[in-house]
Each structure stands twice: as structure tokens, then as C-alpha cells.
């Protein structure tokens, strides 16, 4: 009789909880996360598919954009200083809606604010200081409750014609060196500012360094002799690579393609919502089911090992 009573009480509590939750909407309600991106084209790349991934899991993302092409931390800070010194100068209001960073920070209450270094400078620790600290202080001034994250950008594709800076006047010689130097710089800044990292760069490297999933250059393709619409075999590339535009062959070893953007979105979602991504149904049509599964595994592994 006592066991039956315990069982009956547990059922009552569960049903009561379900009814209560249904009345408050907590079961079916969608969580909306407001995210301000302080960055450049790499933050745009990494967040491209984030709204679809969130929607697939019943959540919603609202973005604010403090992003400029190729913009390093130094320039973001200098633009903020210009706006402080000359509030009416339009040059200090370069972001969406002709706004300054201070305006974006004060206009809304942000749940998450991210910042990152320009990829070409990501491996040179000297380029982070003191601008990361200054931007952090500015963010905290206007958004004391926001979760601030560093977005660890990725290294360029292995066949890139050049790689990012690792010291003043010195460039990395390989994808591996660029990854290692930039990772070290991001993690040092994260420790100094007591921040967590969105480890997109780690996820890219997990794919690129694994012989089973890595991109391999098509040695049979000669870009100097290529005739439209010929393109190389670029299986497993996370970067844009080769494309034709107006009869001209273009090569982009820096920015992400759909697979890279998807990988970035998975990493971001796992960090922002603290949820697994292995069962996510959404994927870009251009990404195969097999590769999507490998990208989910890489994102999961990167996030598990990427926190400070």
C-alpha cells in the first residue's frame, strides 16, 4: 500500500507539473537569445546558419551587428573613441543603422556579446592588447549582465597562398602554425579577461587535421590553365575555395563555405545554448549527410575541450 501511495503521489506531481508548465508556456515556449556580434566577415560566416539551427531546436536568435569587413580589435576600439570624442561625426557610427558601438550597446539589453580578432592578425598576440581589454571594459559599462565570449576564428585553408601574422612582420608558414598561434593568443586573452571561448577554430582544425575528413588539394587542377567552367575537386573543404565570376577564376582560402558556416553555427549553438548538436536535423543542402555527421562530431569535440 505504501509503495502504491508513493507511485500515485509521483504521478500526481508529474501531471501537476506538466499542467503548470503548459499554463505558463515553459514547455512549448521558444527561448529567444539576443546576440551582439562585434567582428567582421568571419563572425558573419560563423553565424550564418545559427538562426536555422536554433529554430530546429525550438529556439530563436536575434542579432545585432557591429561588424565591418576585415576589422581588427584596434579599429573597433578606435571607432568607439572617435564617437566618444566627436558624437556627431558619422565616421564613428559605421555599424548597421548608422550606429556607433556605444549606441548598439545602450539601445538594447543583450544576452550575449561576442568579439574576435581579424583573422590576418589572430596569431599575433601583440595586436590584441590593449584593445580587447578596452572593448571588454566598454561592454561591461553598458551591459553588466551580458555574457561576453571570445570567438576563436579559424586558420586559412592548407593551400592558401599566405597565412596570418604570428608576430610583428612575420607570417605563419602553414595552416597548422596559423591555427596554433591564433589558438594560443585567443586562450591567453580569455584567461586574462576571464572569458569563455567559442572554439570555431578548434572545430575547423579537428576536421582539417584528420586524414579521414581533411581537405586534399586537387593536384590535377592548374588554375593558370583553367577554362570556364572547370573547377577543382574540393571535397571536405570548409573554405570557399575556387569559383567563377564574370569569366574570372577566383580563389578564397580564407572565408567559410556552406560546410564551414554550418560547422561554425553548430559550435556557436552548442556554446550559446549549452545543448548537444549531434541530433540536429537542419543542414545546408550542399552538405552531405555523411559530412554533416562528421561536422557535428567535430563541433561537439571542440566545445567539450574548448572551455577555459
TrEMBL record:
InterPro entries the UniProt entry points to: DUF4886, SGNH_hydro_sf
Signal sequence, renumbered to the chain: 1-24
Name of the protein in question: DUF4886 domain-containing protein
Record carries keyword NADP: no
Top-level taxon of origin: Bacteria
Domain DUF4886: 35-189
TM segment ranges: none
One Pfam family recorded for the sequence: DUF4886
Keywords: Signal
